[in-house]
Amino acid sequence: MIDLMKTPLSGIVPPLVTPLVDNETVDVPSLERLIEHLIAGGVHGLFVLGTTGEEQSLSFSVREQMIRESCRINNGRLPILVCITETSIVEAVNLANIAKECGADGLVSAPPYYFATGQPELAQFYEELVPQLPLPVFLYNMPSHVKVNFAPETVARLAKMKQVVGLKDSSANGVYFQSVMYEARKVNPDFMMFCGPEEMTGECVMMGANGGVNGGANMFPELYVAMYNAAKEKDVEKLVELQSIIMQISRTIYTIGRHGSSYLKGLKCACQQLGVIDDDFVASPFYKFDKPERDKVTIALAKLNMEHGKLKL
Amino acid sequence: MIDLMKTPLSGIVPPLVTPLVDNETVDVPSLERLIEHLIAGGVHGLFVLGTTGEEQSLSFSVREQMIRESCRINNGRLPILVCITETSIVEAVNLANIAKECGADGLVSAPPYYFATGQPELAQFYEELVPQLPLPVFLYNMPSHVKVNFAPETVARLAKMKQVVGLKDSSANGVYFQSVMYEARKVNPDFMMFCGPEEMTGECVMMGANGGVNGGANMFPELYVAMYNAAKEKDVEKLVELQSIIMQISRTIYTIGRHGSSYLKGLKCACQQLGVIDDDFVASPFYKFDKPERDKVTIALAKLNMEHGKLKL
Amino acid sequence: MIDLMKTPLSGIVPPLVTPLVDNETVDVPSLERLIEHLIAGGVHGLFVLGTTGEEQSLSFSVREQMIRESCRINNGRLPILVCITETSIVEAVNLANIAKECGADGLVSAPPYYFATGQPELAQFYEELVPQLPLPVFLYNMPSHVKVNFAPETVARLAKMKQVVGLKDSSANGVYFQSVMYEARKVNPDFMMFCGPEEMTGECVMMGANGGVNGGANMFPELYVAMYNAAKEKDVEKLVELQSIIMQISRTIYTIGRHGSSYLKGLKCACQQLGVIDDDFVASPFYKFDKPERDKVTIALAKLNMEHGKLKL
Amino acid sequence: MIDLMKTPLSGIVPPLVTPLVDNETVDVPSLERLIEHLIAGGVHGLFVLGTTGEEQSLSFSVREQMIRESCRINNGRLPILVCITETSIVEAVNLANIAKECGADGLVSAPPYYFATGQPELAQFYEELVPQLPLPVFLYNMPSHVKVNFAPETVARLAKMKQVVGLKDSSANGVYFQSVMYEARKVNPDFMMFCGPEEMTGECVMMGANGGVNGGANMFPELYVAMYNAAKEKDVEKLVELQSIIMQISRTIYTIGRHGSSYLKGLKCACQQLGVIDDDFVASPFYKFDKPERDKVTIALAKLNMEHGKLKL
Predict the structure, then answer these.
(1) DSSP state for residue D140 in the 8-state scheme
(2) What ipTM did this prediction achieve?
(3) Do A60 and B284 lie within an 8 Å CB cutoff?
């Protein structure tokens, strides 16, 4: 275990897809394979039960199973962050206590996502929640799903709590990212900034972010680690070269379906086709791709493989 | 118990506020007083754990307590509907089974509210969920909180399932309400239509809706029952007269705060001041009004009382 | 000419479709036929250059032509309202002066629709604009196109200006409509309220609104006039009967295309097929229906004709 | 004049604020001072009548005056782009012809902003508009004001027209920016990408963008040119250092007011206080800052000056 209040975390922290047998059962052998795949690929941490991990679609029993099994498999090799996003403050604390008990290193929390809070309400909520949590916590900005942004001023206010160690931003808004980084680090120079979307992680890291919580790393961890390293070393040419592969993945694997679920279904389907997980069962209210979409994933993967080899860079 | 697949429900079915001691405890004596107040006021059914009941902010244990205690107190006197809106299909079914076991008559379900579904995904979700439910179910349209509308075509598709007996619409969109009523009743002429916002329930009932799920009935059940009766009897003059009182309530009690939470906080604070519940504790992430807002509620109630008597019409 | 500050207007005031030869030319013979059709159908006023009239897609020259020709053809038989919605206050005043010069009776103005104003900015804008206008003005609430709502408090503030005689609401939000009517009439009991969407005009009139600005009246003026009369006379049964025809029109003619433009394209195509206008040219950035969609309009009209006769009720 | 279809444009192309005496009059002496200030500051082009230039709030006469005077003053020293965004295709062509006649080098066009188009309608609109334009054109993505995004697929489709030479993106969405750059450059490797928000221009240029259309350059052209140069030269350390000044400007000058107009009012007020323009009159529906806000601008500028000198870097 690392103490995130003292040792900052940097690098690629993939949001694990949740391998499922059905809506009530984690596919543990696939989870083992996935975690070994990620560790072998050089990632710097693990993020369990994020949006990519379908937290909200999972029952509490499955959420608990994911936390327990992930911590057990990882066995202290990498820092583990657990998402405790919940509409009920009581259940959020319950999840946090399970995470602590299992040996997780940190928590991640997006705002309550049914009622939309005003900014003062949002700040007050976290000022109530955080002291009840047994671990350091990252704020999680995810306005497309949550309806509410953490305003930069709110982040700065919350960053005054030592236990609030960073923010993961999935808004894709570059101005927002820069604004939060600027305001929060005035309060705490070590405030950690992680970028969700892999399509803009490289540039964010060059500008000072700590790393990326990139779903694509479930498929190709080496690629995203290489991207992080290039950015970290300010090797812009290398970064731009890797970026074109990352964009090819984004524009082929993640844009197949018709709905907002394209990213999740495409990613999970590709993980299955790559042998990382056995089945790409997606929890309700989503459903895995049918044959025509699966075929497009196959073609996209074949093209990636042909053009870029095994993406072990 | 009534069989909602055979006997349609009509009238005022208030969405009960949830009387709380704190985030983990239902205030049972207040719940008893509230239910007696509603039954004495002539309402036609009870709706537990709706948005007004703060379902999403409550722990599972508190949700279960609300279901059990409400059914116990009601003791079969009125039909009871229980809201099972959840992002996890498994937990939705769990809540439904508790409701059935406690003797509830029907369920109410809004779409999953973290991931936004496309319409085919939404239909497929309900085609998976509904057969697992032990009771008839109302769809619950709540786009401001859920991000997703039930398209009229989707409602028509789902209305083909006998177990889907109606829809409660809280969109406030009059064109949407008419469109759903028109399309769904082509499929099932008995499809029940309930209007959430009390400000437009009267007109909807005149046009053929079954009734209203009106939060204001927690305060003044007689008023909303009188409004329903006037609409039902096509007494337009009486309706317009009552409407002006309903609008006065809406424009004074529900518009005090600065955020989207004004309605809930104002309603709960007024219920406390009227003696219906002991405390207006609001579950996190909201917090009950402070003194300046409470004083405005007091003044608004005094003005209502002065101008319209005890609102026992 | 009527003085709208003294004589309230009530009834059906259709938003005229703009018959076009191309993007630069009004089809004047069709406009003549349209206006005669509407007057013969018993409507109570004419509304030129509204959203249904594609104001924003028209050049200034075409807008002026529409104002001049409509006033000339009408020749004082009905009150004429002209929409002056513009992002530039100077051009809005220019349009208003043309309207006045041509003999129009009133103006209609939606908020500037490029920059989104806050409510105080919006109020200030109208306090600057209105005194420059040579005619009484209706506010026009159209949030889907304009991004900004007139808050009920803002309407109440603006209703203090004698020249602001009413509001046309196209939000379809029933709570909003009731709230504005309640607040504005506390300031000015004669404040006129018009409902845009025909699907909810009947109920609004019963509750006290002055009438409807209903696009469908371009096709079937008698139907909407009959709906208005039934609502005005509080004949709920008649109203509900007519409502089912109005809903059939809405759900067949207006829902054919894939985009937000379905209503406009469907309406204009139906007007052409009914012989009201010669061509259903739609100004850029929209384009009239192709054959498959045209055929659906034909079938919908045939079904309406078969089931309800000529819709001259 | 440069031929933008042959010679790509790169660098800082400031969107000029429009110096106004009132809603109907350009302040020409201030415009002269502004343009000399920008040219002296080393910017690479001029962008007239953008959102920062309040195009939509200006009368046609003022728009024409701005085009004429800007071209006259510039006198061929820098490439000039003119924004022709309009809801009427006819008026857009009219503006384009004026721009051509005055000697502008290129056009910029955001989608029609009253009616929201679907993507096929949007593509069709540009396929109709572009051939009527006398100059090369940049697409302008501005979803917050226009309601509609150019989907990456739509940009790729339009990039097939030789006359469509690039896109200016003001969405602030980093994933979108990368996606458009990736898709459009597969069609045309010279497709120019400009970033609107200055807070993320540096990183975009490092990743391959051509430059920035940064409002802040009206105040401090040297700063933004230095940022561009650092990014162009892949000098990440220098860039990060300049970025902190850019963020200080953004978080102090642009965040003073309460509404979406804060950026425009703050920028224009600062330009006035810096002596770049004589008055910061803002066209209706906005209004320049009052004393309390002006004082905050004064303090922010003093702090910038104290900490960073004259920002001539």
Answers:
(1) E
(2) 0.97
(3) no
